[in-house]
């Protein structure tokens, strides 16, 4: 079982800015969310083995705060960072207006990652967890990456049509469980 946490809130999230690969710190609300997630996991009593975290600051801080409660080894991994949003990073989502659909349809035009790019790195991460028989691990990552983790666990090959049907909203500081095996 994987226990997946979306990082705590940040100021850019509050402002509805596209974060991408930015190293934004979690804010006070994000710290509380991370602490509560750690307490909830501790109270669950599962024998957790490790925490795997995105290398972006908001995830590192969330993982470290969760770990103040759990005391586990933490491994930071670039394969579970958020989608790169290229030249759209830092922009207010409300102001993207007419380019938003084009950005989503043609991310490479904006020096951003495609879904397939993200699938390849996330699938590599999942394959490594399986090869090493990792179980009861905590993953701290991002909204887009959680959607791709979920997809990569259940799909051995990339298919944009099936991916579009599997995207969900994941809330900051919340814990989601995914069967790995």
Description:
- 43% of the residues lie in helices and 11% in strands.
- Helix 3 (57-70) links the parallel strand 2 (51-53) and strand 3 (74-76).
- The mean pLDDT is 93.
- The chain has a single domain (2-178), classed as Phosphoglycerate mutase-like (Rossmann fold, 3-Layer(aba) Sandwich).
- With 181 residues, the protein is α/β, with parallel strands linked by helices.
- It has a 5-stranded mixed β-sheet, sandwiched between helices.
- It is globular, with a radius of gyration of 16 Å.
- The chain has helices spanning 11-14, 28-44, 57-70, 97-105, 115-131, 143-154, 160-164, and strands at residues 2-6, 51-53, 74-76, 137-141, 175-178.
- The protein is built from 7 helices and 5 strands; from the N terminus they run βααβαβααβααβ.
- Helix 2 packs across helix 3 and helix 5 (115-131) packs across helix 6.
- The protein starts with a strand and ends with a strand.
Mean pLDDT: 93
Q: By CATH's scheme, which homologous superfamily applies?
A: Phosphoglycerate mutase-like
Structural class: alpha/beta
The proportion of residues forming helix, as a percent range, comes to 40-55%
Apparent shape? globular
CATH topology, by name, is Rossmann fold
How large is the radius of gyration?
A: 16 Å
Keywords:
7 helices, 181 residues, single chain, alpha/beta, 5-stranded mixed sheet, globular, 11% strand, 43% helix
Give the gist of this structure.
This protein is α/β, with parallel strands linked by helices and 181 residues long.
């Amino acid at each position: 079982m994987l226990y997946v946490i979306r990082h705590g809130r940040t100021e850019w999230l509050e402002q509805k800015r596209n974060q991408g690969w930015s190293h934004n710190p979690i804010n006070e609300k994000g710290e509380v969310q991370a602490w509560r997630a750690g307490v909830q996991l501790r109270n669950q009593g599962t024998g957790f083995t490790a925490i795997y975290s995105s290398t972006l600051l908001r995830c590192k801080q969330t993982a470290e705060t969760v770990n103040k409660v759990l005391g586990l080894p933490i491994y930071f991994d670039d394969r579970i960072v958020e989608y790169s949003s290229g030249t759209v990073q830092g922009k207010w989502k409300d102001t993207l207006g007419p380019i938003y659909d084009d950005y989503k349809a043609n991310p490479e035009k904006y020096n951003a990652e495609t879904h397939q790019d993200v699938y390849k790195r996330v699938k590599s991460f999942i394959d490594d967890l399986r090869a090493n028989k990792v179980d009861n691990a905590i993953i701290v990552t991002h909204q887009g990456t959680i959607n791709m983790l979920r997809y990569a666990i259940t799909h051995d090959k990339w298919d944009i049509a099936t991916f579009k049907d599997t995207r969900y909203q994941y809330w900051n500081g919340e814990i989601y469980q995914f069967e790995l095996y």
